[in-house]
User: Fold these one by one.
Assistant:
Number 1:
Amino acid sequence: SSQGQFVQGPDDVPTVPVPVRRLDSLNLPPPAFVKIDTEHWEVEVLRGAEGTILSARPRMLIEVHDTRLGEIIKGWCRHEGVNYGFEELGATIPAAHPGVQRYLFLRPKD
């Protein structure tokens, strides 16, 4: 297994493979708050945690790197059965997080 070992990624950037599991499969206590900052994988995290999110109804803070990703997450919030509201919190300081457009704060409507 290469887990925990450096491997060569695109453009000769070293990467480290990590195991991936659905949050729904971990049998954790219901969260009250979830922060998602997964470098363009936020939608996949939402999908892997959907059962937990829909049953626990936590508030969430999601870092959004591009407009298209933000629109997909907003669409997920509006989806029947999800019923989450969202608020855009604005951009972060560019020097601290270059390329980050904004955060979305999500909260259940019910």
Number 2:
Amino acid sequence: GWVNGFGIMHGGVSACVTELAAAEYVNARNPDLHTAHVHTTYLRPVVVGSPYVATARAYHVGRSSAVVEVLGFGGSGELCTVSTVTARRLGSVDRASTLTSTPTDEDGAR
């Protein structure tokens, strides 16, 4: 579920919302960029049953990379999370083939 053992919203849920907010912001400005890293700092818990609102603003959106700050606010407007999301352009190598490549031994044999 969305609630952890402490009775508050699981941090993974807020991190996911953070990534979605950043991706939407970046995609509107450069659809060739994709999330590469998310770092979230949790300042206070998000109370279950209250809204969680994420707002994104960019430090940089360029041709090959982007850095976006996302602030997450709880139902009373309190700042709950601060995240930095980086995005990058995928390389010219087909991503699917990179993910399914066969590992090699030390001599380069498959």
